[in-house]
Amino acid sequence: MTTVGIRQLMKKFEYQKYASFIALIVLFVLSSFLSPFFLRPGNLVNILSQVSYTGMIALGMAFVIITGGIDLSVGSLVAFDALLGVMFMNWMLAAVHNQVTAVLLGITATILVGGVTGLLNGITITRGRLAPFIVTLGTMAIFRSLALFIGNAGEVQSQSSLYGSFGLTNILFLPVPVWAMLFLALVLDIVLNRTRYGRYLCAVGSNTRVAVFSAINVDRVKMIAYTITGLLVGVSSVLLTSRFNAVSTSNTGMGYELDAIAAVIIGGTPMTGGRGTVWGTIIGAIILGIINNMLNMLGVSAYLQGTVKGLVIIGAVYIQRQRS
Amino acid sequence: MNDTLLETKDISKDFSSVYVLNNINIKVIRGEILGIIGENGAGKSTLMKILGGVYTPTSGEVVFEGQTVTIREPIDAKRLGISLIPQEFNLIRELTVYDNVFLGSELRQKNGLLDKKAMMARTRELLLELNVDIEPDARIENLSTAQKQMVEICKAVSMNAKLLIMDEPTTVLTQFEIDILFRLMKRLRDQGATIIYISHKLKEVKAICDRVIILRDGNVISTELIENLSVIDMAQRMVGRELSQIFPHKHTPSEEVVFEVENLTVPGVIENVSFKLHRGEILGLAGLVGAGRTEVAETILGVRRAETGRMLMNGRQISISRPSDAVANGISYLSEDRQGSGILTGFSVVKNTTLVSLGSYCKYIIKLIQRQRERDSADEHISRFNIKTQSLDTRLEFLSGGNQQKVSLAKSIDPKPVVLIADEPTRGVDVSAKQEIYRLISSLATEGLSCIFISSEQEEIIGMCNRVIVMKQGGVMGTLEGESITEEQIMFLATGIKEGVA
Fold first, then answer.
1. Average pLDDT rounded to a whole number, residues B144-167
2. Which residue ranges form the domains of chain B, and what is each CATH number?
3. pLDDT tens sequence across B101-133
4. What's the CATH fold of domain A41-296+304-323?
5. How many interface pairs between A and B have CB atoms less than 8 angstroms apart?
6. Are A233 and A80 in contact (CB under 8 A)?
7. In terms of CB atoms within 10 Å, which of A51, B203, B318, B477 comes out highest?
8. Running DSSP on this structure, what letter comes out for residue B359?
């Protein structure tokens, strides 16, 4: 093939669509050379389960970012929601003396609280005509503070022995949280690309005025996006507390908003909204996970990992800018 | 005087291997107003964007004042003295006139702070020179469209532009404002400036230009002195065929009243607007810019809230508080502001055409989109509307203005409305796309669609409408019907010289 032919072929190739995937493969190959332990199945599974908690939140974050918004409150909400969930479960356990009932009700309550708080974010933003950044910056402070207050800034243990086990269970070689993330991604990918709601989401993010004139209920579309994020925070909270069988009001969910936003951006969803990708977001989360994993294995200080993460985020946005 | 200011040599431009410009050779002579005309997609805007540094040509070169130049960025063009005044203004709304005039080349005091006084004084001088009545410290957002354009021109003049390129400057202006602009252009020319004037409006080209270059499908068709060309010649060379009658035959609507508006009032915006719309009727809404026509449309759609008044569809009262209610009641809107509220340029042709009616392409409770049905329907629209696009999945940003407008129309009628409000349906589109849009609206009316037709172009109103309502300052001044729909009568009512019978 001539060079011109190759160049044309390369021109046609949609980098935008596959950039994050290519980055993942490059990183994967690089890592397997850098560390002999990287390719061990145990390590790979470990990476996946570590990113699953923020990965599923990132899926909701992608929806919010597609509408042109942002949700900074997710990390604090994980702490608040997990705390309420565990406390409710402990209380139920004392009331009904049935492990299964208490745990199931606890899980439902945690997910519901997540959804309701997400909806509150959405209502405040749309009805109050306020900037998402400001509203969720506010609720970020509020949820963390409430969690610290209710939990006396300490740790709350779950009294259920059943609860602590399922979050670590393996099904077909993969832990439950990983399956949960993949399942949610599958569903949300269909929602984004195949349903009316997904189409509306992109329309609202591309041009709100056109969306309004196209008979789209813009406020509702946005509220649903924040609610979905809240529900996913709920699921993440359940799996997280189940893993530790406890909630630390000061540490749980710390910095999750950064990881979630980073995964979305690295995955190829532009901050300006209007379009986005679900699987790209999962890839973005995994890329972050691999980077963390490698830094650990190479003995880089844990304190420096934030620096690397920050650089990767800025780099990803820079590359996006170059492409457009 | 016949020296060449700018020359293009074999300029070609392709977008992903589709040629939009094909070996263009043109000369711009110092001190002339050069008209460049052509249909949408003929390559006028692309050529100008190459001169302005927005695009780089695939091949060929630009010679400016005898030197071969490379214009890679808008800043390069600016340095050479080429100033492009785009259709959408590049002014910052929140800043004042003088801030905008000096944007990027601010005057400073010795201590480094802005020398606002000097900038204001210089702007005042410039405005005076151009004979424009605008205060230098007025905010852009408080200016009319025409005034904004004057500021753009002032900005170009302040940078001592040798070549001024104006892309469709009169689209948003009233006749009065157009006259002011033309006087200004002539004065600039007499002072030695060179102007390239791009337009669809052939009468205006005839009135203002010294020479005309006609483009068709990316080729230069002819270059003529203006006195050798009539308006009809220009139109025929642009289109490349004889123009048959532009407006389709008017057909008689039925007596049945479909839609009725009673005493619609939005305080300070529209007042006591009432009218009846018959099945298959095209009802014109005429008036000067700012008469409240678009506002009537927006109130019917529920974008503005009416304080009093009611609407009836087939005799039943309907309540509309947002556009989705309007669509549910069979009312559809074709926006005057194509890119601002009509279409999504980042969406494909299919996704645009079905955006309003998406619900009807969905199944199950989760509203799963049936993609094949959606594509079939978009395909139908493409062939019915003769939309020129590479594929169904081409994003609208790659379509010409006329084709974008047809997609916008397709989007409005895809929900199969009973009433279509077409707001400036042919704004910024060329003669043949116009003709097609007239035919489409007319054939839809024959099929029983009722249309409220808003337009600032008298010819259109006269050529298309069965009845015409003329508005002034938010109120209905009178209704014209049949033979009485004439340019004179409309102007009498629109300007308030004569009160009609409402």
1. 83
2. 4-239 (3.40.50.300), 244-330+417-502 (3.40.50.300), 346-416 (no CATH)
3. 888 778 888 888 888 888 899 899 888 877 778
4. ABC transporter involved in vitamin B12 uptake, BtuC (1.10.3470)
5. 68
6. no
7. A51
8. G
First to last CA, chain B: 57
Q: Which of A16, A38, A77 has its CA nearest to residue A227?
A: A77
- pLDDT of res. A69: 96
Interchain contact, A207 vs B344, CB within 8 Å: yes
Q: Please name the residue ranges forming H helices in B321-400.
A: 323-328, 349-353, 371-385
Candidate from B301, B322, B367 with C-beta closest to A196? B367
* Domain residue ranges in chain A: 41-296+304-323
Give the helix, strand, coil percentages of chain B, each rounded to 5: 35, 25, 35
Question: Given this model, what pLDDT does residue B502 score?
Answer: 43
- How close, in Å, is residue A204 to chain B by CA atoms? 10
Pair A192, B366: CB distance under 8 Å: no
Q: Which two tokens stand for residue B193?
A: 């400036």
CA distance A73 to A61: 11
Adjacent-strand bridge partners of B368: A195, B363
Q: What is the DSSP letter of B447?
A: T
Amino acid letter, residue B7: E
Angle at B43 between CA B39 and CA B49, to 5 degrees: 130
The closest of A44, A103, A58 to A236, measured between CA atoms, is A58
pLDDT tens digits along B237-283: 887 765 556 788 888 888 899 999 999 999 988 999 999 999 999 99
What is the C-alpha to C-alpha distance for residues A225 and B215, in angstroms, rounded to an integer? 48
**Six token digits for residue A41:** 């199945």
Residue A201 near residue A208 (C-beta atoms within 8 A): no
Residue of B nearest to A273 (CA): B346
pLDDT in tens, B181-197: 888 889 888 888 899 99
ipTM: 0.86
User: The pTM is what?
Assistant: 0.78
Q: Residue B366 and residue A191: Cβ atoms within 8 Å?
A: yes
Nearest alpha carbon to residue A238 among A149, A153, A142, A113: A113
Burial of residue B13 (number of CB atoms within 10 Å: 0-12, 13-18, 19+) = buried
Collapsing DSSP to helix, strand or coil, A306 comes out as helix
